C-alpha cells in the first residue's frame, strides 16, 4: 500500500518543506487542488523538481477540457492526474488517452459518484479508483466515513479525513493507495505522524485494532 501525502492550503515553500520533512515515510506526493488553484501548474513543476524520485499526483479534479488540462499536468511533471468520476465519459476517455501518451496514470475521484455511475466507470480499468469524503462533509459532520465500494480489477485509493485511528480499517480493506493530508500536515510533529502511518501500513503497529 502506497502512502500519498496530500498538500493543501499552504504556500509552495511550506509544501516543499513539509514534503521534505516526511519524505522517508511517504511514497507519492499530491499537489493538492488548492495549491494548483492558488499557484497554478507551476506548483506541479516545482514539486517534481524537488522530488524527482517520488510519484507526483496533480489533484486537478478535471471536470471538462480534458486534453488542455491533462497536457498542462503531464507537461509540468505529474505522474498521475485526477479527473472527477461525475465528468462525462468523453472527458474521462480523453484523460486516459493523455495519460497513456505521457506514460502516466489517471485517478478517478468518486466524490458524489452514485452506484449507477460507478457501474459505468468500471470500463476504465486502467484508472485508479478513489473513494473520497469531501472536506466540506468532514467539516460538517466532524468525521470521515469512507465507503469502499467494489473496484475489482482496478487500483483502489481512499481520501478524506483519514486519521491514524481509522487507518487499520483502511489497511484491512487492502487498498493500493491511502491518501493522507491534515493528519500529517497539521500534526504537531509531521515527521513522527508520517512515521506512525508508515509503520501501521507496514503492519508493524496495530493493524488488527479498529
Ligand atoms: O482532495 C482533497 C481535498 O479535496 C484532499 O487531498 C483529501 O481530502 C486528503 O486530505 P485530508 O486527509 O486532509 O482530508
From TrEMBL:
Short name of one Pfam family for this protein? Answer: OMPdecase
Task: Look up the record and name the pathway of this protein.
Answer: One-carbon metabolism; formaldehyde assimilation via RuMP pathway; D-fructose 6-phosphate from D-ribulose 5-phosphate and formaldehyde: step 1/2
Keywords per UniProt: Carbohydrate metabolism, Lyase, One-carbon metabolism
Q: Provide the catalytic activity annotation.
A: D-ribulose 5-phosphate + formaldehyde = D-arabino-hex-3-ulose 6-phosphate
Q: Which gene encodes it?
A: hxlA_3
State the family named in the UniProt similarity comment for this chain: Belongs to the HPS/KGPDC family. HPS subfamily.
Question: Which EC numbers does the record give?
Answer: 4.1.2.43
Orotidine 5'-phosphate decarboxylase domain sequence ranges: 2-197
Q: What is the name listed in the Swiss-Prot or TrEMBL entry for this protein?
A: 3-hexulose-6-phosphate synthase
GO biological process entries: 'de novo' pyrimidine nucleobase biosynthetic process; L-ascorbic acid catabolic process; one-carbon metabolic process
